[in-house]
């Protein structure tokens, strides 16, 4: 990764604190993908980077809790695990005793019966400079007060003639820690992070970094974890802010990446800001791919089974699966009933062909007839669910026979409304679309078709256009469309956004200009479907507030307003 | 409820602080069953008690957060809900303006942008004496730091000539708040609680109460919530400690109850301690009944469907369902395959007959044959799961047709080991046995058969004895028993108890004297089944550490020790 030079403009007057840096220090942002609990694997990854950069850097900077992965949840309550983590840290320090470069690393730290979320420098065989997190996030998807003790103000770290101000994730989001570090003489601010992806998070992080810069006039290094962990995706996108307050360096999104920056380079005022080239659709798509890829990898699986319906959700999920594990590892099954349109069969087949995945048709009619012989009164919603459940049964049986994991594909609009069959189309190990609204699904497909257009010339894009053009339908009865039961998705998704992401009450939502009865109906369905969501597969958080650990509602809930 | 008189023994010398009470105060412990979010219903319940005790008491004492129910989870982040709760509190105060008796009530309280877990006294139309919780539990099943701000030391409350020291739940578990209240002149300590049931919790609460007494020599009133809420059961069992430090008054377990105590009565030293008559088996059974009953009631359901297998788990679950909602509301379906023994059919039928529930047999053989025609290679584990899933399909279809909720019956040993079929026997809205080990299931059945023996004379107990005598089997292949795949339950449950409740590492568990390979195998299965548990139905917490909100482990977990 190369950084645009700034030689064409004279440097601005630098703040005095910045000028104090003794001599150029080489700092390497080490954006790695740690696995929760995998001490052996994480140490191997850290050692590999350490060896690779030996001689080329002074300090490798790893993310928050990189030693144990994030979030380790109740592993942090397991004394045996914490002791092994401490042993691993000592082994790591000892491993690097002959290296000239040091590493800065996030690790849990036990002291006087308390547990801290800490950073240490491992330098020439020694563990130096424990500094501890002060602000423990305990909102949204975070539960750090369950595990850690909050520390008081932390001192600066003198490292090879430069004064570093180290902050751990949340500490960076408040003004006080950086200001205190500056008052202690810090010359560079370093944040180590495990910051989960959200659609707007990259902008938020940059805004906060620029706020910290404007308060302190110090360059900033921001190292984020990358990788999927259950329902969270860490997107990487590490960056640096130079002495002009510009985002002068960026690391990749959604992949491991390393970048070495010299402190004198960081201390110059740059004329050029490194642009962010991703757009909302590509970010969401890549987050879903990484979420699925790492869920499979970190749970020891590789194959994917997916039920293709000829609809947009399963088509996008199949594309994501192919990106995650390769077409060779994805098998699609189309399971038509008498209600399945020929167009659906055609579209599913074309989609599988475009993606290069194996494709099979297993009609469910004979099973349905067999069931109806046994339970002849089955009708209405029960009959619709029956079809969905027979499909789930076929997929799960295949999964048990082959070891491939079923990917389930209900989008956020459906999961919010309960427009999904428990133990039917909700069967599966992971749902890459779980936190993506239906209207966003369409936008992502459009984006995907445009970006892939070059590779799939003549096909009209990976996702067949007729899938995008037809009105969405579950095809569980004749002439059904989603809009028989739900408002148009454009309206539904807006209202859901008010109720979920903005956490507005029914009346506050109605006051935004929506039909009162419609808002009440949607809010009621949202509440009623909680029992389904609590039995649903995990899926990557994409929005500001997902429907799992980001929004923790009771199933039994007597609040109706 | 009457209390044994203490007139036969002269009172001991009372501590001076106790003697300061100005005149007898009548205090009523109001152990009510609030519903989370149901402001209208909870207020109606409070008003009803208020009216009933008007003229008979001075102060009605309701549980922690009785106005809104506990735990309200992310409803506490909903500004509209909090505003409505505040309005409801004002309405309630106004409602009681002409009553001579006051109420002490737990309520959320918004102040200066912070939210407190508070207690107020409503007296003659006024809202008086906000006092706020100081210690916010954020461990185990608790997440109060997500919602509330911790308060500083709280003052005593002067009420009609008596100085009351009010504590909110967790504050009672620490020495400092009570000692401070005593130092301020408190004459009676009052704790309002939402303390969830655990097998040993009643003893724990009493021990803490006696600890507080020994530190302060003040009588204590402990009012606990009662009722089920999703995966928690609040067992009531409110009590009072008299001036002799004895548990002098007890309220019912697992039901609403009220008891009025005069302060002079409480200030006497009693010669007699009110005995706790329940045993571990009855406590667990009653907790499961209340959990299921309230889950149904508070989610607006009444009917129960259950798959009877002829095994012990479904038999006990059926008995619990009958206790929860009445035999008339429970329907059992036996779904035999070629692997089902005649004894299982006989036992299931006898069990249904003993319980007085409707019973039906739906063989799954034709469905299996139909499926095997479609997928002829299905064998091994896939074939076993297929049977379980066809049964789930039948139950869920019936559920959709009738509106009755499927009760699922996997015990804690099975849920820990993943010895259950996802989307098969795990289908259901609620699992009353989820946190009860298999060995405990047997003990509860034995207890149940003894207690019910009088009513079912000649039947040998509600649970047919042959169910208890036969080796447990899933009957998914010929001659199968659980012990083909699992260690004997006596050993398994002990090892699981070390790994789960005691949170020991593998090596620490082996050090307790168990076979190393066996412990490693069990720990590995426990870890691997996390993905199933995260898609499982809720069920009541019975143990110290349940496998849901009490033990929050990642699915992707690289820790193997």
Question: How helical, in percent, are the residues of chain A?
Answer: 25-40%
- Report strand order across the widest sheet of chain A: 5-4-3-2-1-14
What's the CATH class label of the largest domain in chain A? Alpha Beta
How many strands of chain A? Answer: 18
From the coordinates shown, what is the CATH architecture of the largest domain in chain A?
Answer: 4-Layer Sandwich
| Helix count from the secondary structure assignment of chain A | 18
Task: Explain the overall architecture.
The structure is a homodimer of 561-residue chains. By secondary structure, chain A is an alpha/beta fold. Chain A folds into 2 domains: 13-269, Carbon-nitrogen hydrolase (Nitrilase/N-carbamoyl-D-aminoacid amidohydrolase, 4-Layer Sandwich); 283-486 and 529-533, HUPs (Rossmann fold, 3-Layer(aba) Sandwich). Helix content of chain A is 36%, strand content 17%. The first copy, chain A, has 18 helices and 18 strands. Chain A has helices at 16-19, 39-53, 79-95, 175-183, 201-216, 263-266, 280-298, 312-325, 342-355, 365-374, 380-402, 412-417, 438-451, 465-469, 489-499, 506-510, 516-528, 530-533, and strands spanning 26-31, 59-61, 102-111, 114-123, 126-132, 157-159, 162-168, 188-193, 220-224, 226-229, 232-235, 239-241, 247-250, 257-262, 304-307, 330-334, 358-361, 405-407. In chain A, the strands form 4 sheets. A 6-stranded mixed sheet of chain A has the order 5-4-3-2-1-14. In chain A, strands 6-7-8-9-12-13 form a 6-stranded mixed sheet, covered by helices on one side. In chain A, strands 17-16-15-18 form a 4-stranded parallel sheet, with helices on both faces. The longest helix of chain A is centred in the C-terminal third of the chain and has 23 residues, at 380-402. In chain A, helix 4 runs parallel beside helix 5 (201-216). The N and C termini of chain A lie far apart (53 Å). At the A-B interface, helix 2, helix 3, helix 7, helix 10 and helix 11 of A face helix 2, helix 3, helix 7, helix 10 and helix 11 of B.
């Amino acid at each position: 990764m190369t950084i645009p030079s700034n030689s064409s403009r004279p440097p601005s007057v630098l703040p005095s604190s910045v000028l104090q840096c003794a001599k150029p220090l080489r700092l390497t942002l080490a954006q790695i993908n740690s696995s929760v609990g995998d001490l052996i694997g994480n140490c191997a990854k850290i050692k590999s980077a350490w060896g690779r950069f030996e001689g080329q850097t002074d300090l490798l900077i790893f993310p928050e809790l990189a030693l144990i992965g994030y979030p380790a949840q109740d592993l942090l309550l397991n004394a045996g695990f914490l002791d092994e983590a401490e042993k691993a840290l000592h082994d790591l320090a000892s491993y690097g005793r002959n290296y000239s470069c040091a590493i800065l690393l996030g690790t849990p730290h036990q002291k006087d019966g308390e547990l801290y979320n800490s950073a240490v420098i491992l330098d020439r065989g020694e563990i130096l400079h424990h500094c501890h997190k002060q602000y423990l996030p305990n909102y949204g998807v975070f539960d750090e007060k369950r595990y850690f003790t909050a520390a008081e103000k932390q001192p600066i770290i003198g490292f090879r003639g430069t004064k570093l101000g180290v902050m751990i994730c949340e500490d960076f989001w408040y003004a006080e820690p950086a200001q205190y570090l500056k008052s202690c003489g810090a010359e560079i601010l370093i944040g180590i992070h495990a910051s989960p992806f959200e659609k707007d998070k990259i902008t938020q992080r940059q805004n906060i970094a620029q706020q910290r810069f404007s308060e302190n006039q110090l360059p900033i290094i921001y190292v984020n974890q990358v990788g999927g962990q259950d329902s969270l995706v860490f997107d990487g996108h590490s960056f640096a802010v130079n002495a002009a307050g510009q985002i002068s360096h960026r690391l990749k999104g959604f992949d491991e990446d390393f970048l070495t920056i010299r402190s004198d380079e960081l201390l110059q005022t740059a004329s050029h800001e490194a642009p962010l080239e991703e757009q909302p659709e590509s970010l969401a798509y890549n987050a879903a791919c990484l979420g699925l890829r790492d869920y499979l990898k970190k749970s020891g699986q590789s194959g994917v089974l997916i039920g293709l319906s000829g609809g947009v959700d399963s088509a996008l999920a199949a594309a994501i699966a192919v990106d995650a594990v390769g077409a060779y590892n994805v098998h699609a099954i189309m399971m038509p009933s008498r209600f399945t349109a020929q167009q659906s069969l055609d579209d599913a087949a074309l989609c599988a062909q475009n993606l290069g995945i194996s494709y099979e048709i297993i009609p469910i009619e004979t099973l349905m007839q067999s069931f109806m012989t046994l339970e002849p009164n089955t009708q209405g919603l029960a009959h619709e669910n029956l079809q969905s459940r027979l499909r789930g049964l076929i997929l799960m049986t295949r999964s048990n026979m082959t070891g491939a994991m079923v990917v389930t594909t209900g989008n956020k609009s459906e999961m919010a409304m309960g427009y999904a069959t428990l133990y039917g189309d909700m069967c599966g190990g992971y749902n890459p679309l779980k936190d993506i609204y239906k209207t966003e699904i369409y936008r992502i497909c459009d984006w995907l078709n445009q970006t892939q257009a070059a590779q799939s010339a003549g096909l009209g894009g990976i996702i067949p256009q007729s899938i995008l053009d037809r009105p969405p339908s579950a095809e569980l009865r004749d002439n059904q469309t989603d809009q028989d039961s739900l408002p148009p998705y454009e309206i539904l998704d807006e209202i859901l956004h008010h109720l979920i992401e903005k956490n507005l009450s029914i009346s506050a939502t109605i006051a935004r200009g929506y039909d009162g009865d419609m808002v009440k109906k949607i809010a009621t369905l949202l509440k009623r479907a909680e029992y389904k969501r609590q039995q649903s597969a995990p899926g990557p958080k994409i929005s500001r507030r997902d429907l799992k650990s980001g929004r923790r509602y009771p199933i039994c809930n007597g609040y109706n307003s």
